[in-house]
Design brief:
The protein has 752 residues and is of the alpha+beta class. The protein has 19 helices and 32 strands. The strands form 9 sheets. The protein has a 7-stranded mixed sheet, sandwiched between helices. A hairpin with a 2-residue loop joins strand 27 and strand 28. Helix 10 packs across helix 11 and helix 10 packs parallel to helix 18. The longest helix is centred in the last third of the chain and has 28 residues.
Length: 752
């Protein structure tokens, strides 16, 4: 069963339009909410008058800071440096607003349109304050402090040291020095955020939040004390999710405000974000500057690497806002031997929407930097870009390999893998020698210039600390499966069903994997960091083994045989010529088992991508021709899902590289707040994609799995930029994204 391309379980429901998303949830007596958001990037709130809004027929309440408990603050859910708590975000603005889109009030009305109309009747008096619209502005001498009582707008400096980069770089044969800028981006999921909050019955019951996702048990632990209820009286339920990408499911102000409104009114309240709100208020990500220098020997071997990273984290440190840049800093050395490494990471608050995680947080940024440095060095040293990578790749014989870096206290140790073999397969599928020869022929002619770009990188997967699964046999021969991991589209239901089918010797379609619900699983962690298959998969397998053990014990008593004589196969237990099924045992009394898989350490996955493209020298337009992408998955549970994740990741990476940028003016106003301005890739922008996978078993979990969800996208920035530079025939990298025609045309003009 593991290794078969089983059809995606539940996919038919979505294809038929029968899915249930948050906007499809209807509860009797439900009201609707709309959020009043700040139109200033930085201002003092002088007064808020809601009388005119309350007078509008159909308006039931207006929630302001006066109605929200002061302990309603969005905390960090990961370890952070001391002092970070001074930069946390309240659920609703108190006295000062720090970004355009920050919630000031919540209107609850009979329908969404009345609520929206009422927003215009709330009178807010602002006293504008100086704005820091960039990390550079926030770090200038004399820049206004965004938070009183802090020494700087720099939240923390995180330093990493391996070997002696300061001593090694001056002696290098070649030192490449560059500044790279990665733009601000967001998930732009097909479905925007939303929530339905159902208050407890006055006679007793639970507060029920429908539409939560990603890490519902973590969020329950945070929310319960804010609402003044025990965790057992707060239920979070996931429904179908139209895309997560790291941004959905984090804790936002609305996750606090909407339930508070439902409790205040004693009626269900639904809030659905519109697209403009989504681009303005859902977590932003990525924006970072790297000042970097990389030293090489005459043979192309890496001598050392030094970087200063300045991350623009927006107005607050929110949930996991410090995660991306630190992950990027720890993985900047990538799959290569880097004996000397020095990095200082600054996380700077500005008057922009706070950042959070976005598919492969931190890695597209660091891969964009490192892989271009590799190509620049290759050209300046007269070495083929593939050859310089081969010379520096960590080999299978060097595993486990300790890079020497850490992120959030965890050492970066690659447990296993074969990066050279993965890269060799990429070159074979790309037909590297032939495409180089064809490139030379094409580029001797006038017209589009052909370019080839490569990137190799490493992904964090299977993040801890644990995950749970619960399996129950039913009397009809089917099974229910519950887990703390969330399902946001990639096929977790299918993966768990196949793992359980493999463990129990039964068809995968006998297992009903249900959406995450705190009422079904008491504890769990969630879905992020490419962890679902690794953590929930191993937990499910452990639960299956426990269920078989319990069944053997009960079968022994029923069949009148010693337990040692009872054998199990394909749903039946046999001893001394007699047989009993799991369904029959379940009919006697409940037959169920649960398990928790504790993650001993992070699992890493090697990944590689190659790009062939054409650049029109007259317009700067980039036309992608072919992409090959591969990843080490440890074991491929479902090859079809592997391919889908890789191809989907490529589409995501194309958008990040060629189109997407959230731009602000000097006053902190968002300039790309609609999909007319925040461009996304179309189907026609995605060329043929050849996805492949490698299977080197991970040593960090019993089943040998590695995660995959973030493997397809993070190398595209570096590979496409390398291909553009290759097409132009220059040794100057593309130092900023997105690679719009205007930016590429400027590079052509600079080449002369």
């Amino acid at each position: 069963m593991i290794g078969s391309a089983h059809i995606k379980i539940g996919g038919d429901k979505l294809v038929k339009g029968a899915g249930e998303f948050v906007a499809d949830v209807h509860v009797p007596g439900m009201l609707h909410a709309a959020v009043l958001r700040s139109r200033h990037a930085h201002a003092r709130l002088v007064s808020i008058a809601v009388k005119r809004a309350l007078e509008l027929p159909g308006v039931r309440a207006v929630i302001t800071a006066a109605d929200v408990p002061e302990q309603a603050i969005i905390p960090n859910r990961i370890p952070v440096p001391p002092g970070t708590e001074r930069y946390l975000q309240p659920a609703i603005a108190r006295e000062v607003v720090r970004y355009v889109g920050e919630p000031i009030a919540l209107v609850i009305a009979d329908d969404r349109y009345v609520a929206a109309d009422a927003l215009e009747r709330i009178d807010v008096v602002y006293e504008p304050l100086p704005v820091c619209a960039s990390a550079a502005a926030a770090l200038e001498r004399g820049a206004p402090r965004l938070f009183p009582g802090t020494e700087s707008n720099n939240v923390a400096v995180i330093s990493m040291r391996v070997g002696d980069a300061e001593g090694a770089l001056p002696g290098a044969h070649l030192v490449v020095r560059e500044r790279f800028v990665y733009p601000r981006q967001t998930a732009a999921a097909m479905e925007t955020r939303g929530l339905v909050a159902v208050p407890p019955d006055p006679r007793g019951g639970e507060l029920h939040l429908i539409g939560s996702t990603k890490c519902i048990h973590i969020n329950r632990t945070i929310l319960a004390p804010i609402f003044g209820v025990p965790p057992g009286a707060l239920r979070l339920t996931e429904v179908d999710v139209g895309g997560g990408f790291g941004a959905r499911g984090e804790l936002y102000p609305e996750d606090i405000l909407v339930p508070l409104a439902a409790m205040k009114l004693g009626r269900p309240v639904r809030w659905i974000e519109d697209r403009r709100e989504s681009l303005m208020a859902t977590n932003h990500a990525r924006q970072v500057e790297y000042d970097v220098e990389m030293g090489f020997g005459a043979d192309g071997r890496i001598v050392g690497l030094r970087a200063v990273i300045r991350a623009d984290i927006g107005a607050y440190v929110r949930t996991a806002g410090l995660v991306p840049a630190e992950f990027g800093a720890s993985l900047l050395p990538g799959p290569y031997r880097v004996p000397n490494y020095s990095c200082d990471l600054w996380s700077v608050v500005t008057n922009k929407t706070p950042v959070g995680t976005l598919r492969s947080p931190g890695r597209p940024e660091c891969n964009f930097v490192r892989e271009q440095l590799m190509d620049v060095a290759a050209r300046r040293l007269g070495i083929d870009p593939a050859a310089i990578r081969r010379r520096n790749l960590i080999t299978a014989g060097e595993m486990p390999y300790d890079c020497g870096t850490k992120s959030f206290g965890a050492s970066t140790v690659y447990d296993s893998g074969d990066f050279p073999a993965l890269f060799a397969e990429l070159l074979r599928r790309l037909d590297y020698a032939s495409v180089r020869a064809a490139q030379a022929v094409q580029n001797r002619r006038s017209g589009p210039r052909r370019g080839i770009g490569l990137a190799i990188y490493v992904e964090k997967t299977g993040l801890g600390p644990f995950e749970t699964a619960h399996l129950e046999a039913l009397t009809n021969g089917r099974f229910t499966v519950d887990t703390g991991a969330s399902s946001m589209g990639p096929g977790l239901e299918t993966v768990l069903a196949q793992i359980l089918g493999d463990a129990l010797g039964l068809p995968a379609d006998r297992f009903d994997v249900r959406h995450a619900d705190t009422a079904s699983v008491e504890s769990g962690v969630g879905t992020y960091g490419s962890r679902g298959t690794v953590t929930a998969g191993n937990a499910a397998h452990m639960a299956a083994q426990k269920l078989i053990g319990e069944a053997r014990t009960r079968a022994a008593a029923r069949l009148g045989a010693p337990e040692a004589e009872v054998t199990y196969a394909a749903g039946d237990l046999v001893a001394r010529g007699r047989r009993v099924s799991l369904a029959e045992l379940a009919a006697e009394r409940r037959l169920a088992a649960g398990a928790s898989f504790n993650v001993p350490k992070i699992t890493y996955a090697g990944c590689a991508v190659g790009v062939v493209l054409d650049v029109d020298p007259e317009t700067g337009i980039v036309q992608l021709r072919n992409i090959v992408v591969g990843a080490d998955v440890g074991r491929a549970v479902n090859p079809a899902l592997v391919d889908g994740q890789l191809v989907g990741g490529v589409a995501f990476g194309i958008g990040n590289t060629l189109y997407e940028s959230l731009d602000y003016d000097a006053e902190g106003q968002l300039l790309s707040g609609t999909l007319m301005d925040y461009a996304l890739p179309l189907a026609a922008d995605v060329p043929p994609v050849d996805g492949y996978y490698q299977e080197v078993r991970a040593t960090t979990n019993p089943l040998g799995f590695r995660g995959l969800g973030e493997c397809g996208n993070p190398g595209l920035g570096g590979a496409i930029a390398n291909a553009v530079t290759d097409a132009l025939g220059t040794t100057v990298p593309m130092s900023a994204l997105p690679l719009t025609p205007a930016r590429v045309f400027d590079a052509i003009a600079a080449r002369g």
